[in-house]
């Protein structure tokens, strides 16, 4: 599939739950969000049907998101079924890491080999504060476990926040010297709860690079690309085991190369993270729609993809928060 800007669409991010066991400051309000009812959330067999239709249209890369996807009952059998579909080339999971210690082996056996783990600080007290109750040791033990199992690449996603983790950027970069981790700094995007934080907390990737290089020396462009479907630019330190990535979500957006659609947990195809347009595929699924009708909904969603987002120019808040869309 190609959109009207001749971008090839071959990647689907599927949110399989809107529930999460953490309450990160930039993602959820303190009280959380009202979860969809069981009937409103797509059943696992419905998500698998969407994936089958996506494959027919040339989509071959899938990422499971949430909420926290590992909370979803039946996630391991679902991954096994997804991995068996002819045409699937890649399955990855984005997780907060809290369940990796107990579920890492199951994920590996089911067919997942790549993980993105959200981790915004290496300080236990700060971690507890930004997640509103999370346990850093629990997450770090999970990271060490999946590295031991053999997952690769394992990426750490750090949302850069001024006056919160700005003194840790070099510490995160140092992790790549000792571990085969791919540390990725992401610019804060004004979506949902983070809308009110964006002004005071925003930091550009250029500033992060400057801080890291002042402490650790010049970063060199990675000689070989880190396997994945996203827009990060990767660099390395001398003799490192991993890499350091930068996602310029705001200062130099990557929309010209966008290759993805999103499926929300409640069954909406979303053409752009930052755009309010959504195409309802749940109703069609439950009305007995055939493959051709479902394919038409995919084509409708692709036709709605904008050339780029406008958050940096002051566009209004996108309505749903990240936890409701699927990060």
From TrEMBL:
GO terms for biological process: Mo-molybdopterin cofactor biosynthetic process. SUPFAM superfamilies: Radical SAM enzymes (SSF102114). Residues 4-222 form the Radical SAM core domain. The keyword Transcription regulation does not apply. It catalyses: GTP + AH2 + S-adenosyl-L-methionine = (8S)-3',8-cyclo-7,8-dihydroguanosine 5'-triphosphate + 5'-deoxyadenosine + L-methionine + A + H(+). GTP binds at residues 13, 63, 94, 155, 260-262. [4Fe-4S] cluster 2 binds at residues 255, 258, 272. GO terms for molecular function: 4 iron, 4 sulfur cluster binding; cyclic pyranopterin monophosphate synthase activity; GTP 3',8'-cyclase activity; GTP binding; metal ion binding; S-adenosyl-L-methionine binding. Binds 2 [4Fe-4S] clusters. Binds 1 [4Fe-4S] cluster coordinated with 3 cysteines and an exchangeable S-adenosyl-L-methionine and 1 [4Fe-4S] cluster coordinated with 3 cysteines and the GTP-derived substrate. PROSITE patterns: MOAA_NIFB_PQQE, RADICAL_SAM. Pathway: Cofactor biosynthesis; molybdopterin biosynthesis. The keyword Transmembrane helix does not apply. Its cofactor is [4Fe-4S] cluster. Keywords: 4Fe-4S, GTP-binding, Iron, Iron-sulfur, Lyase, Metal-binding, Molybdenum cofactor biosynthesis, Nucleotide-binding, S-adenosyl-L-methionine. [4Fe-4S] cluster 1 binds at residues 20, 24, 27. Its EC number is 4.1.99.22. S-adenosyl-L-methionine binds at residues 26, 67, 118, 189. Pfam families: Mob_synth_C (PF06463), Radical_SAM (PF04055). CDD domains: Radical_SAM, Twitch_MoaA. Monomer and homodimer. NCBIfam families: moaA, PRK00164.2-1. Catalyzes the cyclization of GTP to (8S)-3',8-cyclo-7,8-dihydroguanosine 5'-triphosphate. Belongs to the radical SAM superfamily. MoaA family. This is GTP 3',8-cyclase. The lineage of its organism: Bacteria, Bacillati, Bacillota, Clostridia, Thermoanaerobacterales. The gene is moaA.
């Amino acid at each position: 599939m190609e959109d009207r800007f001749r971008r090839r669409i071959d990647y689907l991010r599927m949110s399989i739950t809107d529930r999460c066991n953490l309450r990160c400051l930039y993602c959820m309000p303190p009280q959380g969000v009202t979860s969809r009812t069981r009937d409103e959330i797509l059943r696992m067999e419905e998500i698998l049907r969407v994936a089958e239709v996506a494959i027919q249209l040339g989509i071959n890369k899938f990422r499971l998101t949430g909420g926290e996807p590992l909370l979803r009952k039946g996630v391991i059998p679902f991954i096994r079924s997804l991995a068996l579909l002819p045409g699937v080339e890649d399955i990855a999971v984005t997780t907060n890491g809290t369940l990796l210690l107990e579920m890492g082996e199951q994920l590996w056996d089911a067919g997942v080999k790549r993980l993105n783990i959200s981790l915004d600080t290496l300080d236990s007290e700060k971690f507890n504060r930004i997640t509103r109750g999370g346990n850093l040791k629990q997450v770090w033990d999970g990271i060490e476990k999946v590295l031991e199992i053999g997952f690769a690449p394992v990426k750490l996603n750090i949302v850069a926040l001024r006056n919160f983790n700005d003194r840790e950027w070099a510490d995160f970069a140092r992790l790549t010297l000792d571990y085969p981790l791919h540390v990725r700094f992401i610019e804060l995007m004004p979506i949902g709860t983070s809308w009110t934080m964006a002004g005071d907390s925003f930091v550009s990737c250029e500033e992060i690079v400057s801080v890291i290089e002042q402490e650790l020396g010049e970063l060199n462009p990675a000689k070989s690309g880190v396997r994945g479907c996203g827009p990060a630019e990767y660099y390395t330190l001398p003799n490192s085991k991993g890499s350091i990535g930068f996602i310029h979500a705001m200062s130099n957006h990557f929309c010209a190369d966008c290759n993805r659609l999103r499926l929300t947990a409640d069954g909406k195809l979303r053409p752009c993270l930052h755009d309010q347009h959504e195409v309802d595929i749940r109703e069609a699924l439950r009305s007995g729609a055939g493959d051709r009708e479902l394919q038409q909904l995919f084509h409708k969603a692709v036709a709605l993809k904008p050339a780029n987002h406008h958050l940096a120019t002051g566009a209004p808040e996108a309505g749903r928060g990240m936890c409701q869309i699927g990060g």
